[in-house]
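Format notes (please read before filing issues)

Several people have asked whether sequences and structure tokens are stored in separate files. They are not. Every record keeps both together, in the order shown below: the sequence lines, then the token lines. Line labels are part of the format and must not be stripped during preprocessing.
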Amino acid sequence: MTAQSPEPSPRPASSGELRASHDDREAVVEQLRDAAAEGRIDFEELDSRLEQALRSKTHAELAVLTADLPAPHAPGDQPALVLKGGLYGASRGPERWDVPGHVIAHGGVGGVKIDFSRVESRLKEIAVEAYGETAGVTLVIPDGWAADTSGMDPGFGGLKDKTSADRLPGTPLIRLTGSGGMAGVVIRHPNRWERRKLHGNPTRG
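Then the structure lines:
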């Protein structure tokens, strides 16, 4: 009786042959839209490439659509933003500002307030280290943004999380760590007065 030879193992797929996910396609769509906004491709070509991107099934098919475009800026290349309350306090926002993927806030004796109300971010997550120290740290995030505060040490001053768990698609998650210190850390959505200012001057900055 002739012994059967073992069947060959399946050949592993190359990176280009790997199936693309929804996130992979969405990343290419965003890169194409940025390229059109910068004038690298015209809008007729943008429509054509977007259609192909949404139909693409593999990484190779997606790669063809961006081969002649510069690589997108990696959020991790941006240095962390460090805010120190010092004697007189520190703040960022509510005017428009470019938020990096990592923010560090030390309340000091003057306190720190970080307002993300007018931030437009494509980051999936923003890591925020907040140390309340003597005067505390306040974070204001837009409606539709959500926060994960499970890594936060409340310290003596505590943590007040007044945010909603309802997160809109395409918005970043604020991943909050650090310590409340003596004065504590507060994370919330805009209050009534802040909302009035936002609605009265929505394009500030």
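For reference, the curators noted about this record: The longest strand covers residues 146-153. Residues 77-200 form one domain.
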